[in-house]
Amino acid sequence: MAVRKKRCVAMLLAGGQGSRLGVLTKYRAKPAVPFGGKYKIIDFPLSNCANSGIDTVGVLTQYQPLELNTYIGTGAPWDLDSSTGGAFVLPPYMKATSGEWYSGTANAIYQNMYFVDRYDPQLLLVLSGDHIYKMDYRRLIAFHEKNQADCTIAVMRVPMSEASRFGILNTDADLRVVEFDEKPAQPKNDLASMGIYVFTWQRLREFLIADEEDENSSHDFGKNVLPAMLDAGCRMFAYPFDGYWKDVGTAQSLWESNMELLEPDPAIALSDESWRIYARSANEPPHYIGPTAEVSSSLISEGCEVYGKVENSVLFSGVTVEAGALVKDSVVMSGTKVASGAQVQRSIIDENCRIREGALVGDGENLTVLGSDVQVEPEAKVKPGDWIAPKSVIAKGGE
After folding, report:
1. DSSP conformational letter for 38
2. Percent of the chain, pLDDT > 70?
3. What are the residues facing 267 on neighbouring strands?
4. How many CB atoms lie within 10 A of CB 260?
5. Which of 66, 68, 78, 97 is the most exposed place for a label (fewest CB within 10 A)?
């Protein structure tokens, strides 16, 4: 089937296991983790694509893909369901002679070169599906074209204490990359790759093929492809980004990013009509704040019923907080019920949990995390700092 040639196609790497999120990613990929009361992490790069006019997005899934695949569907919530483009879920698949998992970020693109080639794009935008940020990719692309680059890497300054977690770049005065070091033990500076790249497609294609033929390669962009391009003398540039960007790869960073939404002037404004973040609607009725409720500095999503006290918290759709219950400094995901007399403090509570009468979860100091469908029985206690696996039952006296 003939398709329309595209100037730019985006490939969104969304297969990450997110092991540092622990119990929150036991049954879902990291990009499918809920965020901000009504979103999933993947809503941010998908919305950035839609707002930037990029209408063809390949979404590469792998680990626990069902929830993510179902959520993306046809791409309609992000206006990515046009007849000439759209959002396409691209899991690993069985080929004529064999089938294999994606063995690295570069291999994931390599295995889907047929998809990119269908659109014969000039440029390929490679994105990660697990960061919270807003970015106009049009500016990134314009910077790439202005410099006649083979590869452009979005970068930002990070604390030196965290620099070893990232690919670290050195540039000349014109922002041309002269050195790239993936997750160095001793970083030379704080200029970090955001995992957002623009490539001239035909140039990248050559390196993907060569990398795939290298039996010693990890088939990873940061470890293999970018250093190979640099060694070959390719024109590689760093695009400085000074907006909000957060890698919510740990439960602590996920909790912090949610709490930042509650600030009077949040660093990332979800209410900004000029750059909307789109999501699949929960189709719940309006939330209800009962006559006994006390709510302060919180996000309360549709379908919630609040009769108790909610302070500095994020409640996803369909959460119930009964009279006499307290939810403070916490993120409570869809379908969870907090019964009368129960207390939830400084916690992340996954979907469909039951916090029964008089139960205590967490305290004001240590982050506590409950996986989905956890049952905390009446008067039971979940020790501060504990991570409870999905579908566990916490009985009184069993803390």
Report:
1. T
2. 95
3. none
4. 15
5. 97
